[in-house]
């Protein structure tokens, strides 16, 4: 997931990331400041920090840390479900550009373990192949975990759909019985009315 969004001073922006359990999540971000004179976003925003907060599906804070204007954060999920990742600038009125518009570039990678550059440049071919194989095996485990999580979600959705369909069926039966009862009651009432008025 790679995106950018605009934010104001101390304005908190959050995204929701659906993550399987026991999965590494790595986030890279960069903050740019709007320059009024140049009428464009500058490449960096020195002196500005970003609070990064990650909340689990059970509303427990998994990560809460202050970073610089550009950085990398990571966490490992222990629960599967929707994790809320929030970013908020720590700008104050004492900072020269406080109150100005910020652009935050955010790149989130779920379940990725990056290969070290030294591995790519390794002279020992056997070690390089071994490490690349380990990396591939890790990716296979992650894909398998993702598939299991999707299966769990699909099964939960199917159960919810079946319960909803069952409730709709019973509600339809109850409505039919109520209508039939009202119809019978009206027929009996009309018959009694006609008999009492000696119309029948």
UniProtKB/TrEMBL annotation:
GOLD domain ranges (all copies): 12-110
InterPro entries for the chain: Emp24-like, GOLD_dom
GO cellular component term of the entry, any: endoplasmic reticulum membrane
Transmembrane segments: 168-188
Cell location: Endoplasmic reticulum membrane; Membrane
Main location: endoplasmic reticulum
Entry keyword annotation includes Transmembrane: yes
Annotated membrane topology: Single-pass type I membrane protein
Keywords in alphabetical order: Endoplasmic reticulum, Membrane, Signal, Transmembrane, Transmembrane helix
Pfam families assigned: EMP24_GP25L
PANTHER family: TRANSMEMBRANE EMP24 DOMAIN-CONTAINING PROTEIN
Similarity section: Belongs to the EMP24/GP25L family.
Protein name as it appears in the record: TMD11 protein
Lineage: Eukaryota, Metazoa, Chordata, Craniata, Vertebrata
